[in-house]
Structures are given as C-alpha cells and as structure tokens.
Amino acid sequence: MVNANKNITLKYFPIPGAAEKVRLALWLGGVEFDDVRVPPAEWPELKCHTPYGQLPVMSINGGPYITQSNAMLQYVGTLAPKLCPVDLFLKVQEAIGLVDDFERSWRPCVGLALEPEKLGYGITPATASFVKGSPDLRETIKALREGFLVKEMPMYCGFFSKMIEVSGGPFLCGAEPTLADCCLAPVLERYTLGFIDHVPKETLNIYPGMVRYLASFKSLPQVQAYGEHKSYMAANA
C-alpha cells in the first residue's frame, strides 16, 4: 500500500454516487484511506461543517475538508501515478472528459424526477400539472429516459468502444486501468442494476464491447477486494 505518511478520510453517503470513482481509484492505487459512509440521519449535523453543504468531502492528515470529487480523483493520481501515467496524461484526461459528457447527458433524466422546478417544470401556468410525482411528469420522465437509451447511450457506447479499440484495451487507455476507468465503470454498472425506472437491467447487453469492458474492470483483484469491503460495510451498517 502507498500513502503510509498520509491519513486520508473520505466521507460520502452509503451509495456509489459521486464518491465511487474516488473510492475505486484509492483501491486501485493501493492508497489506504478511511471509507466513512454517512447515514442520512447524520447528514444534517455534518452538513453545516462542510464547505459547500455537500458530500463527498476528503480530509488529509486531519486537515480541512476538501470538496469536489474530480479534484479528489486527480489528487489520488498524484499518490498513485500508475493511474495517470505521464505518457498517457492527455489520453486519460480526454477519456475522463468524455465520461463527464456522458454523465451530463443523463443528468436531466434524474433531475426532472428529483427537482422538476429547477428544469422549469411546475412553475408556470403552462407546466402547472408537471409537479413532482404527477402523472404528466412521470410520463415526461419516461419519454426522456427512453429517448436517452435510443440516442445518447448508443452514441457514447460507440465512442468508448472506439477508444478501447484504439488503445488496444481492455481498458480505455490501454492494458492497465487508469483514473478514467474509475469514472466510467461505475457509470456503466448503474445501467445494469435494474433500479432505475424505464432503464432495463439488460440495457448494456446490446453493446458487447461495453459488457466485456465492465467485466474486465470488475475482475481486477483490487476491484473485487473493494466489492468485498462494500459487502462487509453494508452487513455491519
């Protein structure tokens, strides 16, 4: 393990979410850290102590909280250079940017369900019936997610498959996993779990390249060890 002289604490909710890429990078990099899963009941008390009222936060050697998961991810790259080799730096950053674009294209599908008013629904007479939980809003969410699966998903899976092919694979930037894979793998896995309305758990099956890619990532010993860690934490929560 590396980072013997640093005491890193990462705090996030007991879900994958924004912290998952950081957790994966820490495990793949062999960086010791304290993986704190914050129960929802404890969040209101912790929130007032965070810089921007959000998680995840990271503390190094007991120092002040650091925010923004992308900043944390890049920091892990400095501790574990194998996750962002100098000769692959631009390729890794390009791949991370593409994953960010992929996530951005999905975000309205979630935001519309959680906070429709932020997307302009339910705040004017013309959209008065599109309030949270209403039949009109549910139908719109369904159409939006189904549209994502028809248009955005195949486009981005094509981009990622090409990237893997050009790099020689099995990962985005070549034979070894990088920070970019820590970003993409949990995003892809989300579409296989069957918990998102209107997104079948078989969604990735029509993209064999993505299925192989995800299987390669999940077969890494460090990722398997992380999976056992998650199971242990869930069982003892």
Task: Give an overview of the whole structure.
It is a single chain. With about 240 residues, this protein is mainly alpha-helical. It folds into two domains: about 10-85, Glutaredoxin (3-Layer(aba) Sandwich), CATH 3.40.30; about 85-225, Glutathione S-transferase Yfyf (Class Pi), Chain A, domain 2, CATH 1.20.1050.10. Helices cover about 50% and strands about 5% of the residues. The protein has helices at about 20-30, 45, 70-80, 90-115, 135-165, 180-190, 210-220, 220-235; strands at about 10, 35, 55-60. The protein has a three-stranded mixed beta sheet with strand order 2-1-3, with no helix packed on it. Helix 4 (about 90-115) packs parallel to helix 6 (about 180-190).
For the biggest sheet, the summary is:
3 strands, mixed
Total discrete domains: 2
Mean pLDDT across residues: 96
Structural class: mainly alpha
In terms of per-residue confidence, which ranges show pLDDT below 50 for 5 or more consecutive residues? none
What's the β-strand tally?
A: 3
What percentage of the residues does DSSP assign to strands (E)? 5-15%
User: Which percent bin holds the helix content?
Assistant: 40-55%
Which class of the largest domain in CATH terms? Mainly Alpha
Question: How would you write the strand order of the largest sheet?
Answer: 2-1-3
Query: Rg, please?
Result: 19 Å
